[in-house]
Design brief:
Layout: E1 5-9, E2 12-15, E3 18-21, E4 35-40, E5 48-53, E6 58-64, E7 67-73, E8 78-84, E9 89-93, E10 97-102, E11 109-114, E12 123-124
Antiparallel strand pairs: 1-9, 2-3, 4-11, 5-10, 5-12, 6-9, 6-11, 7-8, 7-10
Amino acid sequence: MNKKYEIINFSEFGDNRGKLTVIENSKNIPFDIKRIFYIYDTKEEVVRGQHANKISRFILICLSGSCEVKVCDLDEKKEDIFILDSPTKGLYLDRMVWKDMYNFSKDCVLLVLSDSEYIKDEYIYEKN
């Protein structure tokens, strides 16, 4: 991937029985998955994230409901806002990208895929 953050559209397969979306290491995402977590039951007024990472890269996928993500490339000081509202749309976040997740719908389940395990010291909590 050339950009520090961008939307990735995943293929959707389905018929009268339902739908299916496939995510595969290094095929339709740019890394091998080492950690998976999800955020849910978040109050609408709460802001999650509020940090950048020195090492980890992420894909954010809203499996249910919706939320907004404000991102900032800490190197270029450029900001964008994305609405995640489909399980076929992922937001890729490279290293050194600040993320604020907010405006969660009541039914929001935000899946996060990462290329590294949790490392406490890699988190940056000062946006500068």
